[in-house]
Amino acid sequence: MYDAFPWLMHHFPGPHQEVFAFNDFMHNLVMNEVQTHEREKAGDPQDLIDFYLAQIEKTKDDPTSTFNKDNMVQTVVDLLLGGTETTSTTLLWALLYMVKYPEIQERVHREIEAALEPSHLISYQDRKKLPYTNAVIHETLRYSNITSVGVPRQCMRNTTLMGFHIKKGTLLLPNLHSVVYDAEHWETPWKFNPNHFLDLDGNFVNKEAFLPFSAGHRVCLGEQMARVELFIFFTNLLRAFTFQLPEGVKEINTEYILGAILQPHPYKLRAIPR
Ligand code: HEM
């Protein structure tokens, strides 16, 4: 309905009104930020909004330019939406798996302790010294499969892909689920198994079928940032704490809640300083 009559749907009551309200909230939030940037014009551009505003100014006489305020606001909203809940949800899954598999958590602790001085400031480079920890993070991204059907895309022209005809305008959802659980590529697809990313000598190995960020021209724009954030947060947390279930709690629910991304059920854990 929305594709056919976008303007009409704004006048109908229903659950979609909630989505519109969230959308308006995000746009207003970013618009306020843009206005603050315009008011407090810095000498040198400091961030994306500053650069974008400068680009709008530079291309204002070019009728073909796509640099305008609407596109800028949408770009910032996309980055906020794509860049926050994805990484934090992956971290929630990672801690849940550490509680569920204490022997894996124990191995991460031992590796961090052996490789890093307690006062060492952890950086992304340290992943080379921590192959097992790095493998645990990769396995979390694979196994939690948070972006199970990627992001919807629209086919721009009539296309034939491996014999399948796809008409211009068709909406496509990449089935990443089928890749990260593909039995031809993963030894134990349905088991949390960091060894998927380790060779026999314990060295980290990447896998062709590791595609939680998808692939191709529209691959996740924030992949590198997500990798860095996950490594630094996870390693710092595991260096500082042992994670356990709260006293008296015996069950761990590792089923997901279906949504735009797959979330774990809310859970509590104990973070015991090490
Ligand atoms: C664990 C973390 C993350 C996962 C699993 C993830 C996954 C994905 C996936 C599967 C897509 C769709 C790619 C496609 O359509 O083929 C995507 C798109 C995107 N992601 Fe991420 N993402 C993560 C973190 C981030 C972060 C930190 C940012 C930004 C700071 C970000 C920004 C974006 C943007 C802007 C797009 C759309 C790219 C485009 O349309 O060209 N993502 N992401």
Automatic annotation (TrEMBL):
Q: Name one GO cellular component term.
A: endoplasmic reticulum membrane
Offer one example of a GO biological process linked to this entry. Answer: xenobiotic metabolic process
Q: Which UniProt keywords apply?
A: Endoplasmic reticulum, Heme, Iron, Membrane, Metal-binding, Microsome, Monooxygenase, Oxidoreductase
Localization terms from the record: Endoplasmic reticulum membrane; Microsome membrane
Read off the Pfam families from this record: p450 (PF00067)
The cofactors it requires, by name, are: heme
**Record-listed heme binding positions:** C220
Q: Its membrane topology, per UniProt?
A: Peripheral membrane protein
Is Heme there in the keyword field?
Answer: yes
Q: Which one of the record's GO molecular function terms can you name?
A: oxidoreductase activity, acting on paired donors, with incorporation or reduction of molecular oxygen, reduced flavin or flavoprotein as one donor, and incorporation of one atom of oxygen
Is-annotated flag, keyword Transmembrane? no
- Gene3D superfamilies cross-referenced by the UniProt entry: Cytochrome P450
Q: Its family?
A: Belongs to the cytochrome P450 family.
Which PANTHER family does this chain map to? Answer: CYTOCHROME P450 508A4-RELATED (PTHR24300), CYTOCHROME P450, FAMILY 2, SUBFAMILY AB, POLYPEPTIDE 1 (PTHR24300:SF368)
Name this protein carries in UniProt: Uncharacterized protein
Gene source species = Cairina moschata (Muscovy duck)
